[in-house]
Amino acid sequence: MPNDAVQEIKDKLDIVEIIRSYIPLMPAGKNFKAVCPFHKEKTPSFIVSPDRQSWHCFGSCNEGGDVISFVMKYEQVEFYEALKALAEKAGVELKQFNPQQEKEFGVLYDIHEAAVKFYEDQLAQSEEAKFYLKQRGIHDDTREEFSIGFAPNAKDALMVHLINTGYAATDIERAGLAFKTDRGTYMDRFRGRVMFPLKNTFGKTVSFSGRILPNLETDNVGKYINGPETPIFSKSRILYALDKAKQEIKKLEYAAIVEGQMDLVTLYQEGVRNVVATSGTALTNTHLQTLRKITDRIVLAFDTDEAGKLAAERTLDMAHMLDFTARLFFVPDGKDASEYIAKNPGKIKGVIERMQLTPFQFYHDRFFLDQFKNDIKRATRAFLQKTLMLASPIDQNTWIQQLAAKTRIPEQVLYEELQLIKKTRSGKTEPQTAQAVEEAPTSRIEKIARRIALVCTAYPSLRNEIEPYTAYFPKSAFDQKTKDLLEMQSSLEVTGDEETSSNEIKFLLHELKSEYLKAKQQKLVIRMKEAQTEGKPEESSRLLKEFDELTKLREND
Asked: Where is the Toprim domain (predicted)?
């Protein structure tokens, strides 16, 4: 990439305006200041200099740079992706790409844009797909706004089209839109599906989610499937429609989160514009960290079944640790949002605003009125476990006061029980019965493995379920020192019955394998970049093949 092209982009953009589009800036003499978006602080230490066209954090980050480095860090993207997005804002045409960067990234974006147009054209020709969307209440203008399309039920329709357009089969496969069969031929990944483009925060399509048409549904075919992990797509990072919602989220100062594209699209056309959705994965810590840069308030709109409530629990735990103010909304009558909207047009926006539950209400009802309604001791322990997830001691104190008022258990007793749970969790119990684990698990893999081990300690019959996954566990997961502590903690921390715990184990094993393979892929990406920097194209290609093999393993889980 010629340096003059980079300089031209920087010359045409005002760093103050670009950064202001992400975070609020306040005048500070000839500069501007803000609370740093990259670490938690109360006193603004983030300075933007119009004269130098640079930014710097004088707090714990102690980092700084130009407009490109800010976008890279804020959006968590590579140099090429940030530069391309800024070039469009500046009206600069990038005529000369670094060939390796173009091969690794650029062609994948181009292929996805071509696929969007192909799927839209196919939808225009499919009466069956248009009828399905009409049945689901999707209007034509909404369909166009979200670039919803249709993948024909043919083995290689997209593949043939893209090859005829000039793209290489290997790049189409690398983009995740086709796969190679055992016979060595290529087949479209998406067939007979309504297609939802998944876009990054710049509005660039990076993958797809496809919903099978009802007449093609079978037990062996997933209702929804998503594109695989690629160099430009990670499902644990992308939130569906965030590119559209982020300005409305800033305006209303909160984000609504739903599970699935169809619910989101129907909510959007009902006027709920501050809404995002996950795509093919449970909400992750990375998703929440992305939202935390925009707002500190969220409303979770999940399904009312047990899976939806478990997802709500898991998300609230993460949200509280990130100091979000969270609320929950469950669609009346046990329906999903799109079903409710179809029967009650024009009402959902007001219902969401009126019928929000606080986390306290949700956990109280879940534990005391549902799961453990006949066992106040287990219900209280389960509730206090959630109290410990709150980042603020003030919030913890408020919850205990409210719980005491509702249950008539004295506050002092609740505090004593809370302290017992704290000691047990940290391993600081009676010296003759247990010793503390030297270091709490830090990586997500270790945390998942620890939780699996904890549940299996409570319900030993579930241990058979983990045998096919033993290769993905860290070595310390089942050592004797850890087992001793788990024995004591399991009765306090595993609050579900055996059936609920079995469902949790299945979900956690899937997450464990996914995180293990993702970690290996992240290491490969670093090694690929090193190989490119050192001028070793053969090594880079070999590593790319390893990356693709790991992607296939993640898909097959």
From this structure: 253-332
